[in-house]
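Schema walk-through. Below, the input block comes first and the output block second. Nothing else is stored per chain. Lengths vary across the set, and this one has 346 residues.
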Amino acid sequence: MIEKIYADYAWEQTVKLLAIDSPSGFTSRAAEWVRDAFSQLGCEAKITTKGGVLIDLGGKNEQDALFLEAHADTLGCMVAEVKGNGRLRLTNLGGMNPYNAEAENVRVYTRSGRVIEGTCQLCNASIHVNLDYSSTSRKWDVMEIVLDEDVSSAAETRALGIEVGDIVCFDPRTRRTESGYLKSRFLDDKLSVGILLGFAKYLKDNAIVPERKVYAHVTVYEEVGHGGSASVPAGVTEAISVDMGCVGNGLQCTEKQVSICAKDSGGPYSYEVVGKLIEAAKKTGADYAVDIYPGYGSDVEATLRAGFDIRHGLIGAGVYASHGYERSHIDGVYSTLKVLCGYLEV
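--- output ---
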């Protein structure tokens, strides 16, 4: 049975990855870190042409291979306009929501390599001045980045090197509580990358060679819908997306469990794979829940839409407040590792 130390290791690696800004389209540093982290464990890992990371976790039967997918890209924004007052209008990358972005600290990455700090605010953000503050619907066109620089015109902002198309990254505010809760922006899905690293370390530490070949793919365009649409090795018959499990009204899962998804907005997952995931959870004593996600899509669905003939499934540690300031628990991480081990019988 896998020990809980691998859940702690998974979180330690997650923290390191969370410190690397990587919204969709701006992921090269994160991908390099992921490649190196798996390589240091003794896994063959390479960056794909598209920019993701393909990892060989070992195994025997290459004609019945399992493909594990997680993603390192996150939500964020891009500069849409340098305004006349020197502030920045934004366009979102992925599902970044302006209600969740307000009053957050940001980093603006210029193409010259300079990084400039600022804050995402409602336009005219002083409550004592803006009498419509509370009634204003938060949309990106009424939000702006207030730079922490002495600028008051577009020319002064451009002199800093900022231009349309520059990337705006939000502070993740990562922490772990004494009670085991894990809080941060972008647990979706960097927590799952950490889980795959914990699983890889378990295999390597114990010299385990699974009966079937196992690959992992850490994608970098999941948040915009096409992360898992490429780089599937020959012989793969099943793909499991290791992504966040949904927690919310009408669902059973909590942050301390692993969620097994039966259906999401893209339709049902493979009945056979879902059944085997449930059996793996029962066999290993993982605390699990089976749920249906009403507003969710995954890497493995992109894999299917790309035309690959595979069976698919989705699991993940329960995460509350998805696409906001998210929260999970170390117990959910541990249960997810148990299900992976049970599925592969390792």
